[in-house]
Design goal:
The complex is a heterodimer of chains A (about 375) and B (about 240). By secondary structure, chain A is mainly alpha-helical. Chain A is built from 15 helices and four strands. Chain A has a four-stranded mixed β-sheet with strand order 2-1-3-4, covered by helices on one side. In chain A, helix 3 links the parallel strand 1 and strand 2. In chain A, helix 10 crosses helix 15. The longest helix of chain A is centred in the middle third of the chain and has 31 residues. Chain A starts with a helix and ends in an 8-residue tail after the last helix. With about 240 residues, chain B is of the alpha/beta class. A six-stranded mixed β-sheet of chain B has the order 6-7-8-3-9-10, with helices on both faces. In chain B, a hairpin with a 2-residue loop joins strand 1 and strand 2. Classes of the chains: A mainly alpha (about 375), B alpha/beta (about 240). Chains A and B meet through helix 1 and helix 9 of A and helix 2 and helix 3 of B.
């Protein structure tokens, strides 16, 4: 215990004296929240859509007005002929074109089937799908109005009414920020501790320490404890930035969120120490820390790509990603107001304990094994 | 734990350490008596550091056995570590910790209580002339004082056996002389000192010396004996006669 305290005290001095690293550990996560928070904003606004109106009628103008009523689509102007479509796509003048054929108004008023066409630039698939969906919704709404106006003479056989709970505007920041917090925290916290042991191997102080009666667990725990403070600070900054800057709601409790976040930070710090215990140089340790956290977390945590649509080997692999559980918890607390996550809690406790044990076991107390 | 003083502070039998195809320590037999200042001489790469590292439990011997303070290192590494102090060639200090904090840290990892750390820290700083620098960083000190601090860190817990690996490397002659005075003080205080050096003038300060060459012990005895038996005027002469060019 005394020996562990001595190591914790010493690590604390290292942390507060190295002002540059400390500033980096605080500034980097904040910078990443802003950068990725805005870049990954998948909400679409002001998509330019051109109109090729061959009908030139009040009805066709009404359709265009309805389409551009929201913020989603802006009118990118009129096209004179189909030949302009390709040119416009290539010059990024618009992402889609609404084609209203001649006879549109006549068909509507005579209760015939009226056709409109949308041409979508598939080069940007996400945008194409979004425009497609939006215009379909506009047409569906018009159909409903027409049915109502007909006084019940026509009835649509089936009507889908979708409503999104918890995130009614489908604001992507609400969805992105929890995942982003998970990625940033694991990256920073693993980096923090990944050099904590290798640095001492390089400077030679580890050799000195190994001739003392200090035990591996005292070194590992003594090094984790002070870094918990830095990790907690980072977690608070990232989550508060999500709340204040991106307006992520807080349906649950900040205290509960803090408790789960500390557990997640502990997992990350333990992983960093495990890396530090098995590598020889700081450079290798930092490379391993980055490779082992950023990509796997982004790809396999459900942050961006839904786990349920992955092939089964990747789904199986995703169970090993701590961020997977933390993101589930974050979204649960912040968006749905849940508090109790027994499954995730159990798995994360096992991960934290397992990684610490592994770090202690792999910590070599002899030089020829270093 | 009270125990009769063992006959030898350090004893090795057929101690061997191989790295891949290279034998750094080859079948070494040593017997160092308690309170002796035992000099361990040899050229660079002769196997001195490896021998010390094996004795401190940093390396596992490939063959043979060693006893430190009467305890076999193979089975009592933890007990051995409580009884020894070690100062490596590169003074293993934390450059961002003050002199006082370095001393407190090593006191802590040797398991001393807070009052013991204060008491021993003050005593050691006093003895080594570091009291005035307690709040300074090691980088503010001249090399001679940094070396004293490294020594201080390894004797806080009052080890029975002190292993010093080239403690005076890179230090000026005056500071070296002062340092040897400290070694005498520690020896008079009851510690056994096992010291490696390649300065032949320092060999004269030792009670007994062994000369190591390519992993083997090639000469062993007091400086007087060695000079007499090799018909040499100085330890420098002895060294050049026993070590193959």
């Amino acid at each position: 215990m005394r020996r562990m305290l001595a190591i914790a005290t010493k690590e604390f001095y290292h942390i507060i004296r190295d002002v540059r690293s400390l500033a980096l550990a605080v500034a980097m996560p904040l910078m990443m929240v802003f950068l990725y928070g805005y870049a990954l904003d998948m909400e679409m606004k002001n998509l330019p859509v051109g109109v090729l109106d061959d009908d030139h009628s009040p009805a066709s103008r009404d359709l265009v007005r309805r389409m551009t009523a929201g913020h989603f689509i802006v009118d990118a102007g009129r096209l004179e002929s189909r030949a302009e479509v390709d040119r416009g796509f290539r010059r990024d003048k618009f992402r889609a074109v609404l084609v209203i054929p001649q006879g549109y108004q006549r068909a509507l008023s005579s209760n015939d089937l009226a056709f409109v066409q949308i041409l979508v630039d598939g080069a940007d698939g996400t945008t194409a799908a979004a425009v497609n969906n939006y215009l379909n919704a506009v047409i569906a709404m018009m159909n409903r109005d027409l049915v109502r106006a007909s006084g019940g003479r026509m009835t649509p056989p089936l009507e889908l009414r979708a409503r999104t709970w918890y995130n009614p505007e489908l604001a992507s920041a609400h969805f992105i920020v929890p995942g982003l917090a998970a990625v940033i925290l694991i990256m920073i916290c693993v980096l923090l501790t990944s050099i904590a042991i290798t640095r001492e191997k390089e400077t030679g102080t580890m050799e000195q320490m190994l001739t003392t009666p200090v035990h591996a667990w005292e070194v590992i725990i003594g090094k984790v404890v002070p870094y918990m403070g830095v990790g907690a600070l980072d977690a608070a900054l990232v989550l508060l930035a999500g709340r204040v800057v991106f307006g992520v709601p807080m349906a649950g409790s900040w205290w509960v969120l803090a408790a789960y976040s500390l557990l997640y930070v502990a997992i990350a710090l333990a992983l960093g120490l495990l890396i530090s215990a098995v590598t020889r140089t700081q450079r290798t340790a930092m490379t391993a820390a980055l490779m082992g956290t950023v990509m796997p977390t982004i790809m396999l945590s459900g942050f961006i790509f839904p786990i349920s649509s992955m092939p089964w080997p990747l789904q199986a692999l995703s169970h090993l990603i701590p961020a997977r559980y933390y993101i589930e918890i974050l979204r649960g607390i912040m968006l749905r107001g849940e508090l109790w996550f027994p499954k995730q809690l159990a798995i994360m406790c096992v991960m934290a304990f397992g990684l610490l044990t592994l770090a202690v076991r792999r910590f070599q107390s002899r030089l020829d094994l270093l | 734990m009270t125990r009769a003083q063992p006959e030898y502070a350090v004893l090795t039998r057929g101690l061997t350490k191989r790295f891949d195809n290279f034998t750094a320590v080859d079948d070494v037999d040593l017997a160092v008596r308690p309170r002796e200042i035992f000099g361990f001489l040899g050229a660079n790469g002769a196997g001195k550091t490896t021998t010390i590292r094996v004795l401190c439990g940093l390396l596992v011997p490939s063959a043979g056995e060693a006893w430190v303070d009467g305890l076999p290192i193979s089975s009592s590494a933890d007990q051995v570590k409580r009884r020894i102090g070690y100062m490596s060639q590169r003074f293993s200090l934390y450059m961002d910790l003050t002199i006082g904090e370095n001393l407190e840290f090593y006191g802590g990892v040797y398991g001393l209580s807070a009052p013991e750390i204060t008491e021993r820290g003050t005593a050691v700083a006093e003895q080594l002339g570091l009291s005035a620098f307690r709040d300074r960083l090691p980088s503010d000190l001249p090399p001679g004082y940094r070396q004293r601090l490294a020594l201080g860190c390894s004797v806080l817990h009052q080890p029975r056996i002190l292993f010093l690996d080239e403690p005076t490397g890179g230090v000026d002659p005056v500071a070296r002389r002062t340092f040897w005075d400290l070694i005498y003080d520690l020896s008079e205080g009851g510690a056994t000192v096992f010291v490696t050096t390649h300065y032949m003038d320092e060999a004269e300060y030792c009670g007994r010396v062994s000369i190591m060459d390519r992993g083997r012990i090639v000469a062993l005895g007091s400086p007087q004996e060695l000079k007499r038996s090799h018909g040499a005027v100085s330890m420098q002469d002895v060294f050049l006669k026993v070590v193959q060019p």
